[in-house]
Amino acid sequence: IESYDAVLILGEDLTQTAPRMALSVRQAAKNKAREMAAKTRTPDWLAEPVQRIGQEAKSPIYILAATQTRLADVATGEVVASPNDIARLGFAVAAAVKGETVNGLDEDAKAFAQTIADTLKAANKPLIIAGTSLQDASIMEAAAELTQNLGSKAGLSLVVPEV
Question: Organism's domain of life (predicted)?
Answer without folding.
Answer: Bacteria
